[in-house]
Amino acid sequence: MPPVPGRTNPDSYPSTTRPAADLLDPFLSWASPDTVYLTYGKIWFPVFLAFTLCALVVRHRRQPHRLEKWAWRIAILGYVTVTVGVFLDYWTQLTSYNVLFTVGWFVTGPGLLLMFVGSTLLGVALLLRRSRPVVMPLLLALSLPLAMAILQVTSLGSVALPVMFAFGILGRRIAREPGYEPIVPKARASVS
Q1: 159, 119 in Cβ contact below 8 A?
Q2: Which of 50, 60, 88, 71 is nearest to 124 (CA)?
């Protein structure tokens, strides 16, 4: 069978990857590579949105001060910015790239920078305050080196996985706590 233009030819794969190529071919060659990438990439927006919302819940639950307060501000700004960028990157594209992909990149790039700076600072601040479970602040503090390692084997979207796992772990812990009630600031005495 002759190869279809714009699709990957499974016969061109090395013999060692041939079984995986045969198995995954229906999932990867149903359209042009750009369309397949943009279609599967749409999953990133709900994932980024979920970990951003989880981070907001965790932030609301804590009473940060000094370094932690500023780290939360930078991190949340980065999470929101990168979530908007991911939306522009994938959800504004249908079958091929348009000008909003470029706009998305100009949002995603600074968002990733803010995310890594804020996550690293937040991880350090949480480690200094002896936050538990310790794996969460460790993942945040090491988010940049872990992202560099992840980039060696997979795509750019996966660089946020350490941050996602950190808030997933803490979010699960919060959800399992019996009788959880959010910390509400005390009302100021009203002056009459």
Answers
A1: no
A2: 71
